[in-house]
Design brief:
By secondary structure, the chain is mainly alpha-helical. It has two domains: 77 residues, Orthogonal Bundle (Arc Repressor Mutant, subunit A), CATH 1.10.10.10; 176 residues, Four Helix Bundle (Hemerythrin (Met), subunit A), CATH 1.20.120.530. The protein is 67% helix and 3% strand. The chain has a two-stranded antiparallel sheet with strand order 1-2. A hairpin with a 5-residue loop joins strand 1 and strand 2. Helix 2 packs across helix 3 and helix 7 runs antiparallel to helix 8. The two termini are 45 Å apart.
């Protein structure tokens, strides 16, 4: 725990709570404050930064929303550095997709880059436990398809498989990006895919798995590219069919509308 004021500097900006949050965030990034560490008390922070109590409270709220800290009440309470958490990142990406009116084509391009590379490196770095996780997911999906399992359950398995591939890279950023894409995009669209198309999705995932298992990096990358391209074309076709009468929007199918339609 930090006890001495030299860690932070006096705040002189107008929106001083943002500067307080920035400095604490930087202390976490620089590992002057580590996971589990308790921040100085609000009174101590107030003295260190030479700001008001309100400013400290506002800064802590920013850090809590970012998933960097959490506050515990009671005698043993305080504000503590949280373990890595991508909730804030996920929400930021989801908001960005909505505000910027990202097209399905743009999302497909983003996924091709991220997931294609993830599959490539997963094939090179995967461990036995990674393959077992993918096998369990594929086996569960295979058993659900003939019995017309719920779309929600099949979609969950599909998302979990993509995440398992990203995690097999053993690079935290790939997993974080994939989880964010799942939460902001795949979670919304998977439930829209017709039952008959799920068999095609399953076959694609099997090809990706087999390439990763065989350590064929390029083949794994190509299998992901084929899967994402086909899946994106399917989504665009579904939207065209659903909104065929809306000619003014026939060329641009955006995530914002996808969210509206899937509620």
């Amino acid at each position: 725990m930090v006890k001495h004021s030299p860690l932070f500097k006096k705040v002189q900006r107008f929106r001083d709570y943002e500067e307080v949050a920035r400095q604490i965030q930087q202390a976490i990034i620089d590992q002057h404050l580590r996971v589990g560490d308790k921040l100085p008390s609000q009174k101590e922070l107030k003295d260190m930064f030479q700001v008001s109590q309100f400013t400290i409270l506002a800064a802590i709220r920013i850090l809590e929303r970012s998933g960097l800290v959490y506050t515990k009440r009671g005698a043993t309470g305080g504000t503590f550095v949280l373990e890595k958490n991508i909730d804030g990142f996920t929400q930021s990406l989801k908001l960005l997709l909505g505000i910027k009116r990202v097209t399905l084509e743009e999302l497909a391009e983003f996924r091709l880059i991220i997931e294609g590379q993830a599959a490539y490196w997963a094939a090179k770095r995967r461990k036995t436990k990674d393959l077992k996780k993918m096998e369990v997911l594929l086996d569960t999906m295979r058993r659900l398809l003939p019995s017309n399992g719920s779309m929600e359950e099949i979609a969950r398995i599909d998302m979990s498989f993509h995440l398992a591939v990203a995690e097999a890279v053993h690079n935290t950023l790939y997993g974080a990006l994939m989880e964010a894409v799942n939460e902001s995009f795949l979670k919304e669209v998977n439930s829209l895919v017709p039952q008959e198309e799920k068999t095609m999705v399953y076959a694609d995932l099997v090809r990706i798995f087999e390439a990763i298992k065989a350590r064929k990096a390029r083949a794994a990358e190509k299998a992901v590219e084929k899967h994402i391209t086909g899946f994106s074309k399917l989504l665009i076709r579904l939207f065209r069919e659903k909104h065929a009468s809306e000619s003014n929007h026939s060329r641009r199918y955006v995530v914002e509308r996808l969210y509206d339609d899937s509620k």
